[in-house]
Amino acid sequence: MSAIAAGDGPWLDDAAGRLVRPYTVSNGRTRPTTALDLLSQVMATGATPLGYLGPEHAQALDLCRAPVSVAEVAAHLKLRAAVTKVLLSDLVDCGGLTTKPPAFHHNPTDRSLLEAVLDGLRRQL
After folding, report:
1. Which end of the chain has fewer beta carbons closer than 10 Å to its terminal beta carbon, N or C?
2. What's the mean pLDDT in 65-75?
3. Residue 67 in 3-state DSSP?
4. ∠ CA 82-39-94 to the nearest 5 degrees?
5. How do beta strands 41-44 and 17-18 pair?
6. Are 10 and 4 in contact (CB under 8 A)?
7. What is the Cα–Cα distance from 57 to 91, expressed in whole angstroms?
8. Are β-strands 41-44 and 97-100 bridged in parallel, bridged antiparallel, or unpaired?
9. At what angle do helices 81-93 and 55-63 cross, to 10 degrees?
10. How many CB atoms lie within 10 A of CB 41?
11. pLDDT grade, residue 6 (50/70/90)?
């Protein structure tokens, strides 16, 4: 059983998984200060963020060199979406990230679209 050192990335153990609880990463906060959707695009501004950045903040900022969705960042960091939104919101607040809401090219509640998705899901089952 090996554990990765704190400076080498997320604290993981081969058998146990993450050694630091997810909400410890966000200091117990569950609500971001910036409204973020899972499909929201975030991108680094290039400015040096003001204030303290934890290792997860630095990893998220590194992932955002090109536009990326909140869901993709959460997947890469192996964190829950709620925790990832708090981290990304911190980075937006300190000037390290910019955010853009998802662009829908059509009405996301269009009945025909929802029925097509439902039909596709039924075919998969």
Report:
1. C
2. 93
3. coil
4. 60
5. unpaired
6. yes
7. 7
8. antiparallel
9. 80
10. 19
11. very low
Both structure tokens of 88: 């990304």
Indicate yes or no: pTM above 0.70: no
CA dihedral 46, 92, 80, 10 (to 10 degrees): 40
**At which residue do the structure tokens 């146990």 appear?**
16
Query: How many alpha carbons fall within 13 Å on the CB side of residue 30?
Result: 0
**pLDDT-based confidence at residue 3 (cuts at 50, 70, 90):** very low
Q: Give dist(CA 83, CA 22) in Å, integer.
A: 7
- The two structure tokens encoding residue 8: 């080498």
Mean pLDDT of the chain: 77
Structure tokens at 48: 């040096």
Least confident of 13-22, 92-101, 109-118: 13-22
Dist CA 105 CA 33 (whole Å)? 27
Give CA–CA dist 87/93, Å, rounded: 10
Least confident of 3-12, 82-91, 97-106: 3-12
